[in-house]
Design brief:
The protein is an alpha/beta fold. The protein contains seven helices and four strands.
Length: 165
């Protein structure tokens, strides 16, 4: 990644993790359009169906594809459940289109900020769904020590899914 792209990526992650700053950017009439213009380079669509349509086109052109329902640092179990369910539907959609694809996510999006138990449960469900559809999971390395613990959990319980950490 180019130095400028790396700095931009780091800035986006910083904004996403600071809820107050994130809200400020999202509500700014001056900054939000600039932010969106930069982010849209990496966003396949505003909805799951838009994203699936775009990656089908790329996949059919020979590209490897990865999709993510963007979000992280969810703070309620309800938000985690909604995110997990969206990821499950994304996995099913990719599988139903017979695409060898990757679904990427942050553990903080599916419960790590609430408890390990919530995150483990949601991760297990996603891994089993991914296994059914031959979809690879890629987990962001936001907290690498916890990531390794989660990976070992899946191995211990013999949940075999193609997973990158």
């Amino acid at each position: 990644m180019l130095n400028e792209e790396s700095r931009f990526s780091k800035a986006l992650k910083s904004i996403a993790r600071d809820q107050e700053l994130k809200a400020y950017f999202q509500n700014s009439k001056e900054l939000f359009p600039i932010f969106i213009k930069g982010a849209n380079r990496f966003v396949a669509g505003e909805t799951r169906s838009e994203g699936i349509e775009r990656v089908i086109n790329l996949y059919n052109k020979g590209y490897q594809v990865s999709l993510e329902f963007i979000g992280e640092n969810t703070t309620t179990e309800e938000e985690c459940m909604l995110a997990k369910n969206e990821f499950k539907e994304l996995i099913k959609d990719l599988g139903n289109n017979q695409m060898k694809a990757t679904v990427s996510f942050d553990l903080s999006h599916i419960g790590m900020m609430i408890s390990d138990a919530v995150a483990f449960s949601n991760l297990e469900e996603l891994a089993k769904e991914a296994q059914k559809h031959n979809i690879q999971l890629m987990i962001s390395m936001e907290e690498s020590q916890k990531q390794i613990k989660f990976y070992h959990y899946l191995i211990e319980y013999q949940i075999h899914s193609q997973m990158l950490v």
